[in-house]
Amino acid sequence: MLVLKIVFWAGTAAQVIIRTPFAISARSRNKTEQHGSQVENILLVLLTIAAGILPLIYTFTNWLTFANYSLPAWLGWAGVIVLICSLLIFWRAHVDLKANWSPSLELYEGHTLITNGIYRYIRHPMYASQWVWAIAQILLIQNWIAGPASLILFIPFYLLRRNAEEKMMLEKFGEPYREYTKATGGILPKL
Ligand code: SAH
Predict the structure, then answer these.
(1) 2-19+37-183 belongs to which CATH class?
(2) Is any atom of ligand 1 closer than 6 Å to the C-beta of 118?
(3) Which of 15, 40, 98, 128 is the most buried if burial means most Cβ atoms within 10 Å?
(4) Measured between alpha carbons, how far is 127 from 146 in angstroms, rounded to an integer?
């Protein structure tokens, strides 16, 4: 359905609009530590292909038509709602993390530990929003290649990134971060 493709691309545009001001302010901050790895960079490139290039090919060519599937209309509309949820979490996480956001694992001069807003409940709301996005992509981009691509790649990326990030944060902030991890969930709030 054309409308589902339009929603997917509108959502992608919304992500870019939400992130751009934070990406600009991140560029002007002085970095004190960089912990990104080669494997992580490769996965980031593959994720860009999965979330951007494959859906582009699916939307604008018939190269992937052989792998199309067709879900009931209500599941497509469920995909729209799931995508909106993803964007709301993505937006809230950026607002709360402020200038501490970075594309790869980095710490800035005067980096503060954020434990309020959505970070009061979960440590990784941005990654949570990407999980939710990956589910929306399966419902909106109805193709066996371009649909599940984000989910398949996000699994190794998330596991690698979360472990490395929590190790970095623990080394930097020590006991307060340990307490923070005890009080919060990763991508789902602690009951
Ligand atoms: N994992 C978080 C943040 C992703 S952005 C999320 O999913 O929302 C990645 C950068 O955010 C890391 O390089 C780290 O410097 C920073 N960061 C992660 N958690 C933070 C926190 N609670 N307070 C401040 N900075 C944090």
Answers:
(1) mainly alpha
(2) no
(3) 128
(4) 20
